[in-house]
Amino acid sequence: MDERTLLDVLVAASALTLASAMPFLYSALGEVFSQLSGVFNLGVEGIMLMGAFVSIYFASDMGLDAGLLLGVLAGIVTGALLGLVMAFVSVTMHADQGISGIGITLLGRGLSTTLFILLADGVLLVESFQPVRIPLLSDLPILGDILFNQNVMVYGALLLVPLTAWLLRRTTWGLQIRAVGQNPAAADAMGVNVVRVRYSAVILGGAMAGLAGASMPLALTNVFQVNMTAGLGFIAVAMVYFGGWSPWRVMVGSLLFSAAYNLQIWVQVLDVKLFGETIPVNVLLMIPYVLAIIVLVFARDMQRFRPQAMNRPFRRGD
Amino acid sequence: MSAANLLPSGHRRIELTEMIAITKRFPGVVANDRVNFDVRAGEIHALLGENGAGKSTLMHQLGGLYLPDEGEIRLDGQQVDIRSPSEALRLGIGMIHQHFMLVPTLSVTENIALSRQGGPLLDLNSVRDELMAVSETYNLEINPDGYVWQMSLGEMKRLEIIKALFHGGSIIILDEPTAVLTPREVEDLFQTLALMRSRGHSLIFITHKLNEVQIISDHITVMRDGRLIDTLTNDDIDQSTLAHMMVGRELRLNLEKTALDAGDEKLRVRNLSVQNDYDLPALRGINLSVRAGEILGIAAVSGNGQNELAECIAGLRPATGGEVYLNGESILDKSIGDRLQAGLSYIPEERTVHGTIGTFTVAENVILQKHGSRRYRSGPFMNFGAIGEFTEDLISWFNILPRRKEALVKNLSGGNAQRVMVARELSHEPEAMVVERPTHGVDVGATEFIRELMLQKREDGVAILLISEDLDEIMALADRIAVIYEGSVVDVVDRKDAIADKLGLLMAGGVGQV
Question: Which one of B114, B149, B165 makes the best mutation probe of the A interface by having the most chain A beta carbons within 10 Å?
Fold first, then answer.
């Protein structure tokens, strides 16, 4: 392979890595809000699947044909509603968060599959968001093609990183979120409404998981498939740990995992051989999951940043 | 409103706080039974009582954590319902809890800013300026950009006080504020309290420490079993009268200690090095020796390696160098079970973490180390008959309340949970004991009981290594005292040559000889 084509392959791989980091970014950044407020939402996977189905069902001409923007909006609303369910069960009813989250994941997976078959006969295609070249910036060598020739949902995901960091650092609401997840009794004593702050964070987290789901069919794959997230929502939850609850480190993690997801494609495209044999696809598909386990083992130092009240329902006077 | 009615912060000063005939019931207990309490501006009012006497419950009602079932609260004659901690804060009542109410991952300024009901954007600079003004007015040194998780317990207590003052706390409730402080920090705290008194705050000081009450308070209210016993002026009341009121019977504050000739060396620590949880050196090659019938007191401020020493001897933490011998035999390679068999017993500092299992019954807790012994099992099954008898013996011997072997340990008071743990550790007739802060957070009755037990064990010829931050306790019990500072033994002195002030200085890293 000559130098020119190798460079092209690398640029294309990088651009794709960035694009497929998008669902990770949306869902993991949303989970940062939720976990920082003290609610461990393991329902991300299910919320993403529902967001994915509802959004493409709204957007596709095989569904309601309401357009891409309404599709995105429907995904967000679906996610927010499931976030509300999670908040009600875990904050108001004081239920165990891990179990509630698993419930929501199972609900989302089952419901999206059933609705997909009932409402859409198992086929949903859409004309997805097209890349938008940013004038001038997209003419930059190499970087232009990687960063500035993506679709709007990718740009949105990237902009959410500094926005999330700013919200958490610089606003009263962000400070309250960080406080109620660490020491809700202290926050309560200072006049912070713990229940309201947790509700808002979990609903926002749900909305962002719904958005993450919408981004998959509408800005990445053009189609809905049963269980199309394939555990990505769980990896997003793990990524929040890996990122030590920091939006910037969560971004690094998202790019890393996205690269691992894409690795198998490029190993096949470039026909990389190991000991003279073609590497079986199933082995390659394992890479991100194995990476997730390895990373979590080494991410134990991040425990210092862990919201101490995560998984603990709050009752005044306990 | 005249300036005389204002606090230095510009907030309104409450002259008189009254709690009238307060009754508060919890399932199965009357925590407060028609209690009257009042406090005036410019007064330090001590609220004295044993654990479970209802002091904190009474103050939690003033602090807005619960509403009273009966009775009323009046501020300057006006009746108020305090429905939440934030409402208490608005009324000018600040409560400094025994457990820190701070968010460790936030900075000092951010912790204070939490209550600001300002706009959506944080204005940390103005909060920082205001908090520094409070810090200067009240002589409370603080780094506004420091993070709480990096602060010492003394600094955290200062921050709690600043927080209460910042929000215009006219009435400030301090729930056992000295429990976690070093003697030096206690002195500083008392100076701050005196300054706050002179500036017109009403201060309520919850405690069970008699000497502190005498030093700092103007008035003393004693509570027992949820009832008010008496309110006194602090002039010439002696400690034993107060103790009698608090406990309801005579206490022997000065323990009798017989002179003993210590026997053979039982426990020996040679050149021992241990690391802490962050893999940093906690002990730097220390040497200690405890003989039969001797109590060696370890005096050290928390975090100087004494906890790691205890854990290493007990087998919870590996040594990085050196040796520990029991009866001349090295025990570092032995398992915890083998160390127990060899006659070592350990009473850990954190009874809820290492000492007892809260969701187990008293019987299950006392049998923890013995469930494998033939006496308490039949084949693979637990022998509940034998276990029950054994537990009942311990319950009456150690006077554990309630007298029910099926009671869950988490429902016991601190003093009784401690008795369960001590009972278990003493029941297997140890030859050497490592005892960490045995009376920490325990009421006076249990404290007296546990100290007497230790002296009795000493007379039975047990070698005891006693680790405590309470210098009075060490002075009362130990035969010799080793001061540890930053992982090294600074000095070892005979009890009869020891002077508390100088020990305190050595514990704080001061140089000089005791």
Answer: B114
Given the structure tokens 């309601």, which residue do they identify?
A64
Give counts: helices (H), strands (E), chain A.
Answer: 13, 4
Nearest to B102 by CA among B168, B170, B153, B165: B153
pLDDT of the residue at A22: 96
Could you tell me which of A173, A168, A150 has the C-alpha nearest to residue A243? A168
Q: What are phi and psi of A37, to 5 degrees?
A: -80, -5
Mapped onto helix, strand or coil, the DSSP state of residue B315 is coil
* CB of A229 closer than 8 Å to CB of A49: yes
Over residues B17-28, mean pLDDT: 90
Distance CA A32, CA A151 (A): 24
Distance CA A264, CA B359 (A): 50
CB–CB of A189 and B103 under 8 A? no
Q: Are strands B219-224 and B202-207 parallel, antiparallel or unpaired?
A: unpaired
pLDDT tens-digit series, residues B421-467: 888 888 878 999 999 988 877 777 788 888 888 998 999 999 999 99
**What does the pLDDT read at residue B512?**
47
> B238-258, pLDDT tens digit by residue?
877 887 787 776 555 566 677
Task: List beta partners, residue B38.
Answer: B18
pLDDT of residue A215: 97
- What does the alpha-carbon distance between residue B180 and residue B338 come to, in Å, rounded to a whole number? 34
CB-side neighbour CA atoms (13 Å) of B105: 26
CB A62 within 8 A of CB A121: no
B304 by DSSP, 3-state: which?
coil
The answer to whether residue A217 sits within a structural domain is yes
- Residue A71 sits at the vertex; the CA angle it makes with A68 and A74, to the nearest 5 degrees, is 155
Task: Tell me, yes or no, whether A201 lies in a domain.
Answer: yes
Q: The domain containing residue A196 runs over which residues? A: 21-305
CB-hemisphere CA count at 13 Å for A309?
Answer: 30
CATH code for position A204: 1.10.3470
Under an 8 Å CB criterion, which residues of A touch B?
A: 170-176, 178-179, 182-183, 185-192, 304-305, 308, 316-317
Q: Give the integer Cα–Cα distance in Å for A79 and A76.
A: 5
Measured between alpha carbons, how far is B462 from B284 in angstroms, rounded to an integer? Answer: 27
Q: Is residue A203 part of a domain?
A: yes
The number of C-beta contacts closer than 8 angstroms across A and B is 78
Among the listed residues B426, B376, B419, the one whose alpha carbon sits nearest the alpha carbon of residue B400: B419
The CA distance from A179 to A189, in Å, is: 11
> In angstroms, rounded to a whole number, what is the distance separating the alpha carbons of residues A209 and B271?
57
Which residues of chain A fall below pLDDT 70? 1-4, 317-318
Q: Could you tell me if B367 and B393 are in contact, meaning their C-beta atoms sit under 8 angstroms apart?
A: no
DSSP state of B404: -
Write the residue in B60, B104, B120 that is nearest to A182 by C-beta: B104
Q: Which domains, from first to last, does chain B contain? A: 14-245 (3.40.50.300), 254-343+429-514 (3.40.50.300), 358-428 (no CATH)
Instruction: Check residue B183 and give its pLDDT.
Output: 77
Domain count along chain A: 1
Domain-embedded: residue A62: yes
Number of Cβ within 10 Å of residue B149's Cβ equals 14
Q: State pTM to two decimals.
A: 0.76
Is the model's pLDDT at B514 over the cut of 80? no
Shortest CA distance from A181: residue in chain B: B103
Considering only CA atoms, which of B46, B92, B96, B48 is closest in space to residue B73?
B92
Structure tokens at B416: 């009784």
> What is this model's ipTM?
0.83
Q: What is the mean pLDDT of chain B?
A: 86
pLDDT of B403 over the 90 cut:
no
Q: Could A317 and B65 be called an inter-chain contact, meaning their C-beta atoms sit closer than 8 Å? A: yes
Strands of B16-26's sheet in order across: B29-40, B16-26, B70-75, B78-80
Neighbours of B330 (CB within 10 A): 12
